[in-house]
Amino acid sequence: MLDVIARALSLVAIVGIGLGIKRLGWASRNDFGLFSRLVLGVTLPCALFTSFNDYHLEYALLGLTVLALVLNVAQQVVGYLIAARQGRRAQAFAVLNSGSYNIGAFATPYLAGFMGPHAMIYATLFDFGTAFSSAGIAYGWGMTLASEPGRHGWRDLVRTLAGSPIFVAYLLLLTMRLLDLRLPDPVITFTSIVGAANPFLAMLMIGIGLELNLHPSKYRAAARMLAVRYLFSIAGAVACWFLLPLPADARMVVVMLLFAPIASMMPVFTQRAGLDVELSALMNSVSIVVAIVVMPSLYLALHAA
């Protein structure tokens, strides 16, 4: 138990280091993009290829991908319906900022930090469904609502997915596992060295990018949408823990993932749609703080149960 607490606090401490070096002027908020590209384009794919290389995929676990897709889309629909009286642009914002989880850059290294490499397998399968629903369905739906119908089509959707290194990595990983292919040992030696840096860089990146500018005009809207998000997360977590026909460690990962932060790409999508970027960034930052506290707390509670 003490080891788990120490691991969780160590990861939080790295976030604190990121905040500290930003305050000292060693890094700035503008450096977040560089760290994000390093994590999503280099260290995280290497960590995933290392973890997945010798993993025998159980086809029953592919249900985690379907589950993630269903949960994400369900939240998008809930956000869409709640914002129905506020017009199409409010519905577009709700769709973009309701159903998504920052699993690749946050939850995966966070889980691996105190649960071990096997947690990355479950998180990756869940993230594949999340990536398609957020970078795919939410993006296409949100852009359509925010602009004139027909302006954004399938070409934009395919271009967005194809331009995401982590989404491409997930496609390759899933294909390799389905075909029972593996990378040569020298390649895995390289990916293991690079991937080992992922937890530190990912947590440092979050600390550098973390902003909590609580403007009074934005606070109420953020609180209302986040309240709906976490009520959904609580209901989903209870249902998944007691109803999913999966091993306890897989159910534990799913429950924790339901409290992961909003995907970091959503403020970018919100900006592309010409919507309230400040509100989106505020919700994203608050969700990171909640995840830092809630995810290890859930692990400790479920681990002791």
How would you describe this structure to a colleague?
Helix 12 (248-257) runs antiparallel to helix 14 (277-304). The chain has helices at 2-23, 32-52, 63-82, 88-98, 103-115, 118-146, 154-162, 165-178, 185-195, 198-209, 216-243, 248-257, 266-272, 277-304. The chain contains 14 helices and no strands. It is mainly α. It is 77% helix and 0% strand. The longest helix has 29 residues, at 118-146.
Overview in brief:
With 305 residues, the protein is mostly helical. The protein contains 14 helices and no strands. The protein has helices spanning 2-23, 32-52, 63-82, 88-98, 103-115, 118-146, 154-162, 165-178, 185-195, 198-209, 216-243, 248-257, 266-272, 277-304.
Topology:
Layout: H1 2-23, H2 32-52, H3 63-82, H4 88-98, H5 103-115, H6 118-146, H7 154-162, H8 165-178, H9 185-195, H10 198-209, H11 216-243, H12 248-257, H13 266-272, H14 277-304
Helix pairs in contact: 1-5, 1-10, 2-8, 2-9, 2-10, 3-4, 3-6, 4-6, 5-6, 5-10, 6-7, 6-8, 6-12, 11-12, 11-14, 12-14, 13-14
Helix and strand sequence? HHHHHHHHHHHHHH
Rounded to an integer, what's the Rg over CA atoms?
19 Å
- Number of separate helices: 14
What is the CA-CA span between the terminal residues? Answer: 12 Å
Structure classification: mainly alpha
Portion in strands: under 5%
The major β-sheet equals:
none
